[in-house]
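The authors assume throughout that readers already know how a fold can be written as discrete tokens. A single example would do more here than another paragraph of explanation. An entry of this sort, consisting of the sequence and the corresponding backbone structure tokens, reads as follows:
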Amino acid sequence: MKDLDPMVFLAVFQEMLSPVMWLLMIVAIAGVAMFTIVLLREKRLDSSRLVRSELAGLLGGALALVFTAYVTHSGFTDAGGPIDWLLVGVIFGVGLVGTTLIVYAIMGCRCGCFKCDKSPQ
């Protein structure tokens, strides 16, 4: 493989995940957009909401690892080299960050749109 072709990655992910890949991409784009809207509307990060969403992010990171193991039909005992463990860490990190952003955005939309008792100053 001499050249880095993004279409090869797209084909591999499409083969592995089928329609779930497109669903994951839509959720990721919508989550980042919602987080950006909440951040622009409030003009600050709410620390208590961020801590709660980070705790949910731990569960999201673990679920990302479980989902990856299910899709690839492999287990954690199959990881042998350092690059395998680096990839496990990256998958956990992406699941953690993605879940944190989505949960923060959902909590921000809930409080901002429905006027809960904790409104931004």
Observations:
- The chain is about 80% helix and 0% strand.
